[in-house]
Prior knowledge:
The chain is an all-beta fold and 372 residues long.
Amino acid sequence: MYVHDRSRSGRVSRLALSCAAIAAITSATPSAAAVPSSGPPAPVCGNGDPPPWVKDAHDPNDGVPDPQGRIVFGEAAGMDDMGQLVTLYAVDPDGSDLVQLLDCKVERPRISPDGRRIAFGIAMDDHSHQVATMNIDGSDLRLLTSTPGFAAFPDWSPDGSWLSYSYEPIQCPDPDCAKEGGFHLSLWRMDADGSNQRLIGDPARADGATHGMPVVTQDAEARLSPDSTRIVFNRIDAPDYIYHLMIRDLTTGKERMATGSARGEEHPEWSRDGGWIIYNTDDESDPKAIREQIERLPADDATAVPVVIYPSDASHLGYKPTYSPDGTSIAFMCEGNVCRMDADGSNVHVIVPAHGTELNHVAWGITPPAGP
Length: 372
């Protein structure tokens, strides 16, 4: 869950964590309606027709694969303890081939390295969140976790064999729970089929209340480096709840801040060669701070001056940047639209207009190879 929930950024609010194993794999279909709360948990799905802005789109489904890849994004569908939830759509980078993929409430989609599957967190009718995957066309939805708490914010390993994610096994949205032991989202991993789940984050932060850590701590929205050796993620601690970016070495366990100071940096992403980290700023504690500006920093130099890629002001805000498969372009959210620009910040244009709604949560992957 994000603190100070805002629909635009989709921040995670307070959560708790005690290390425990998650259960076995289950499955569901994209159109499965929510079952009664007395039955097995099911995804929260609307089963509705695509909205007019999809059905009436120019070249809504021309069927020609785009060599630049495929962009997946969401339309705002509500809020819960984990922040903003969206339903999923996909579009070619030139704005054609726009289709609805999944009419269920999910968050933060990520496309597999081979372009065939999408991973995301999905809201369930028992108020838990689970990590799920599905085919790039919206078929074959599979739940990989089964926890009474929260499993969310997955990312694929570069070879597609495993996923990182954030995990909290205890469902405790009452703020008073923080006083009784703490909310702790920590970093975990599992194989791509949901097996072999284990902690990869800081063990002390997984049980912070007994190790002198802040009562509320969250390690979330982790992104794996192209060589799988490091992970960059958002960390939030009580009492100020200001986001800052951390890099953890998965071999040694050493951690360091990715930037020289905590300015509310969030939604990090590695460049395709691992040399840079892009993110957007959002320091809500400082009224003079520049909100939702997209920047980049060298991954190995926290003292470097950030390079501003997309400067923001009151009327132009940029957030959730993600690189194209070849690293030459960036897709991002700009005032509720899906936008695209060159990697240096030039040539900004809208790919999918908001059409009176709010679009959010964007990912960019390769065009899947033909065949099975």
